[in-house]
């Protein structure tokens, strides 16, 4: 395990002149340069980015979702950036984003807008108009005679671009952006450290508001309010209690009233800070836990740290995945499962960044036959679970790979289950 450097940790979310915090200009520049370096080494003349996280990675724009491809970005091999967006967003960006000097109106060629039109001719028109805009920009910047990488495999768009003489390639574009994003800069790591701290504020609010008779939805609402108070965005997460903790309830948070002796499972996933997403679990006991609950918690933590101890640069994901529970430890018989791929989300590690799931994935379902190498600077969440008398325990840590192992970014106490007195 990596020992954190002196004073390394969250330093606050406000801009100050008396210490260095997250440097957003540096983060934008370094992400852009990483993508451009990989584009320079590819046979592509440019990248058309439609995926929101890829757009944000290259442009720094706050991609908050939308109705489909009503925003997209072109990055050329010379480093030029053209961004298309909706009328309101484009007007806002021209004023507030001076690092981008070519922002245009988008034709929504993919997604909800063409689908809602109810007309195949309208869908063809919008895809064609989007292709026209991209082809015109490529000609302006002198890359229209080179292959264009596109990070989505939308057949209508690719056909429209092909009709305009643009050769498109999907796989190189997807691989290029995965490679650029798989290891994180120092500022990206600090964003993940900060979002972990915000989640911990949410955990604290749960301990203050959970009690017998409180509903899951009420307590989760208090936690979410705390997350927003710290400047986070909340794109997911939930709180379950008692029998809803095993298996995970299909509706996530419900109106169930908590009872003495319940386990509470808080899942802070997809909580964002400057776009960087959390995945951070903790389990609480409403009153003193039973022996079975303590044993389950101990098992989950031991399994978690057995995996963390194996993660370091140069190790492959198949070697690490061996530390996760086997089929017996997965309680596969209870699920009626015969193979690990049937047990998605139970025990694994997945990359974290501008998306909830990034490279790498460490999982017995794929890693033994499809291993990749761990690299310094990768960030990920590692999660384990265990049942306890019709309830369940789940724990998870957010980590960054250092040269000598992992640094744990999450800091809510994990050695023993947190007991909530009432």
Characterize this entry briefly.
The chain is an alpha+beta fold and 422 residues long. Helices cover 35% and strands 21% of the residues.
How would you explain this protein's 3D organization?
The protein has two domains: 24-181, Creatine Amidinohydrolase, Chain A, domain 1, CATH 3.40.350.10; 186-420, Creatinase/methionine aminopeptidase superfamily (Creatine Amidinohydrolase). 35% of the residues lie in helices and 21% in strands. It contains twelve helices and 16 strands. Strand 9 and strand 10 (276-286) form a beta hairpin. The longest helix has 24 residues, at 186-209.
Task: Supply the key terms.
single chain, 422 residues, alpha+beta, Creatine Amidinohydrolase, Chain A, domain 1, Creatine Amidinohydrolase, 6-stranded mixed sheet, 5-stranded mixed sheet, 12 helices, Aminopeptidase P family protein, Pept_M24, hydrolase, protease, aminopeptidase
Give the helix proportion (percent range): 25-40%
Average residue-wise pLDDT: 95
Task: Give the number of DSSP strands.
Answer: 16
User: How far apart are the first and last residues' alpha carbons, in Å?
Assistant: 36 Å
Give the helix tally.
12
**And the CATH topology of the largest domain?**
Creatine Amidinohydrolase
Task: Sketch the topology as an H/E string, one letter per element.
Answer: HEHEEHEHHEHEHHHEEEEHHHEEEEEE
Organism: Halosimplex pelagicum
InterPro entries: Creatin/AminoP/Spt16_N, Creatinase/aminopeptidase-like, Pept_M24, Peptidase_M24B
Protein name: Aminopeptidase P family protein
Domain Peptidase M24: 190-402
């Amino acid at each position: 395990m990596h020992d954190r450097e002196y004073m390394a940790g969250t330093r606050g979310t406000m801009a100050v002149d008396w210490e260095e915090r997250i440097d957003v200009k540096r983060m934008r520049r370094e992400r852009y340069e990483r993508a451009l370096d990989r584009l320079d080494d590819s046979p592509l003349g440019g990248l058309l980015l439609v995926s929101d996280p890829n757009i944000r990675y290259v442009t720094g724009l706050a991609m908050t979702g939308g109705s489909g491809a009503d925003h997209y970005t072109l990055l050329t091999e010379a480093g030029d950036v053209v961004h298309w967006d909706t009328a309101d967003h484009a007007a806002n960006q021209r004023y507030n984003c001076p690092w981008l000097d070519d922002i245009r109106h988008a034709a929504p060629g993919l997604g909800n807008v063409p689908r809602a039109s109810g007309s195949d001719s309208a869908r063809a028109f919008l895809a064609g108009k989007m292709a026209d805009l991209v082809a015109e920009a490529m000609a302006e910047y002198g890359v229209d005679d080179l292959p264009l990488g596109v990070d989505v495999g939308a057949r209508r768009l690719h056909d429209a671009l092909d009709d305009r003489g643009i050769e498109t390639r999907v796989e190189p574009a997807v691989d290029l952006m995965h490679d650029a994003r798989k290891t994180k800069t120092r500022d990206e790591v600090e964003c993940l450290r900060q979002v972990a701290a915000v989640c911990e504020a949410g955990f604290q609010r749960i301990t203050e508001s959970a009690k017998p008779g409180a509903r899951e939805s009420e307590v989760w609402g208090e936690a979410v309010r705390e997350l927003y108070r710290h400047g986070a965005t909340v794109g997911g997460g939930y709180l379950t209690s008692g029998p809803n903790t095993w298996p995970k309830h299909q509706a996530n948070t419900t109106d169930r009233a908590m009872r003495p002796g319940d386990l509470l499972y808080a899942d802070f996933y997809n909580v964002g800070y400057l776009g960087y997403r959390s995945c951070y679990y903790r389990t609480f006991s409403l009153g003193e836990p039973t022996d079975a609950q303590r044993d389950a918690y101990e098992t989950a933590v031991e399994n978690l740290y057995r995996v963390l101890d194996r993660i370091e640069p140069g190790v492959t994901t198949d070697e690490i995945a061996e530390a996760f529970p086997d089929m017996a430890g997965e309680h596969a018989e209870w699920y009626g499962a015969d193979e690990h791929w049937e047990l998605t989300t139970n025990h694994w590690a997945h990359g974290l960044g501008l998306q909830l799931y990034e490279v790498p994935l460490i999982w017995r379902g794929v890693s033994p036959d499809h291993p990749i190498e761990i690299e310094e600077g990768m960030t990920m969440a590692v999660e384990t679970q265990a049942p306890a008398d019709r309830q369940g325990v789940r724990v998870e840590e957010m980590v960054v790979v250092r040269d000598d192992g992992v640094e744990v970014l999450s800091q809510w106490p994990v050695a023993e289950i947190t007991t909530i007195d009432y």
